[in-house]
């Protein structure tokens, strides 16, 4: 995008701001902008959030899970006001084949999202509002916290299946909810503020979305073990330990980037797959199902290695 320089008097030179950007962030006369010199480039930024004021969601035809994801998507997108409308009190929860109150579902989901509250509700209406300011300064800390929570959840799962501790296995779903809460807030921060580089924001957004999928994968594996009260033999546990190693290698790669660690990650991934194929004849059907679920974790991490390498490239 090119802009002509406007000469004012003998010394002042002006360049107009892109109208779409100014409207998006609500830039008005008298506002202060941050201007940084970067060699031949000048970077202009604002502390304001992107303009995402209000959205209305009609959830009348949605089941319990779809309703949750719809509300969560609006929250992650960064809306300040979320109005939810529905024409019936109950909706279906397919997993248990039961009927649940829509307002109860909304209350539970809002309680798991940072910085918003229900400020008004009626029989067929609910209004949710942002009640805290968003600061991008905390993003790096929260992003790392997501990683650490996931690492802890995986370690707990490994310890639980080693000791046939089904009480600990059951806690994985609670840990998943904590991970999702912070993932959602980080995505909200990226949408409302973000890095000065849109490319960097996109790469971090993709990373968070993938960690969310990784957490779901672990949750479903733990849920299957708990529901079956499945006692996993030592050979299968070894495969899960290798998967845990993959996650830790990726974490080290992300925060101490080194191309040798990329090679180490791929080596461990192949070792895990080969171990699984070599042992499959010694595993029972339920153990194979669990490992098939968990083997999705290294595959998702493969995609994240590409993203991490892209983050390392210098900005152009």
Protein architecture, described:
This protein is α+β, with helices and mostly antiparallel strands. It folds into 3 domains: 6-45; 54-130, Translation Initiation Factor IF3; 136-312, Methane Monooxygenase Hydroxylase, Chain G, domain 1 (Up-down Bundle). The protein is built from 11 helices and 10 strands. Strand 7 and strand 8 form a beta hairpin. Helix 2 packs across helix 3 (102-111), helix 7 (198-228) packs antiparallel against helix 10 and helix 7 packs antiparallel against helix 11. The longest helix has 31 residues, at 198-228. It is flat. The two termini are 15 Å apart.
Shape, please?
Answer: flat
Helix content: 55-70%
Mean pLDDT: 91
Strand-residue proportion: 5-15%
Radius of gyration: 24 Å
Summarize the structure.
The protein is built from eleven helices and ten strands. With 316 residues, it is α+β, with helices and mostly antiparallel strands.
Features:
316 residues, alpha+beta, Translation Initiation Factor IF3, Methane Monooxygenase Hydroxylase, Chain G, domain 1, 3 domains, two-stranded antiparallel sheet, 11 helices, 10 strands, flat
Compile the SSE list and pairings.
Blueprint lengths: L5 E3 L3 E3 L4 H6 L9 E5 L2 E5 L8 E5 L5 H14 L3 E5 L4 E4 L4 E4 H10 L4 E7 L2 E6 L8 H24 L3 H5 L1 H21 L5 H31 L5 H22 L3 H21 L5 H10 L1 H17 L4
Parallel strand pairs: 5-6
Antiparallel strand pairs: 1-2, 3-4, 6-10, 7-8, 9-10
């Amino acid at each position: 995008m090119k802009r002509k320089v406007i000469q004012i008097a003998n010394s002042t030179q002006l360049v107009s701001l892109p109208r779409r950007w100014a409207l998006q962030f609500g830039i008005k006369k008298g506002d202060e902008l941050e201007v940084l010199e970067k060699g031949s480039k000048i970077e202009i930024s604002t502390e304001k959030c992107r303009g995402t004021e209000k959205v209305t969601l009609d959830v009348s035809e949605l089941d319990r899970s779809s309703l949750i994801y719809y509300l969560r998507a609006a929250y992650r997108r960064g809306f300040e006001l979320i109005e939810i409308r529905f024409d019936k009190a109950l909706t279906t929860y397919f997993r248990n084949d039961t009927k649940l109150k829509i307002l109860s579902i909304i209350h539970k989901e809002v309680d798991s999202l940072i910085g918003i509250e229900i400020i008004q509700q009626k029989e067929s209406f609910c209004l949710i509002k942002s009640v805290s300011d968003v600061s991008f300064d905390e993003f790096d800390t929260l992003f790392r916290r997501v990683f650490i929570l996931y690492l802890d959840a995986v370690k707990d799962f490994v310890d639980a299946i080693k000791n046939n501790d089904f009480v600990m296995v059951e806690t994985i779903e609670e840990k998943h909810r904590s991970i999702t809460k912070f993932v959602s807030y980080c995505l909200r921060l990226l949408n409302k503020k973000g890095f000065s580089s849109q490319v960097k924001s996109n790469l971090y957004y993709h990373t968070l979305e993938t960690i969310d999928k990784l957490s779901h994968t672990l949750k479903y594996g733990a849920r299957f073990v708990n529901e079956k009260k499945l006692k996993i033999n030592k050979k299968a546990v070894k495969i899960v330990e290798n998967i845990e190693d993959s996650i830790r290698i990726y974490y080290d790669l992300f925060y101490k980037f080194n191309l040798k660690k990329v090679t180490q990650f791929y080596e461990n991934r192949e070792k895990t797959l080969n171990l699984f194929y070599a042992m499959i004849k010694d595993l029972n059907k339920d153990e194979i199902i669990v490992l098939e679920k968990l083997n999705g974790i290294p595959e998702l991490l493969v995609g994240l290695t590409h993203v991490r390498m892209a983050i390392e490239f210098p900005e152009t």
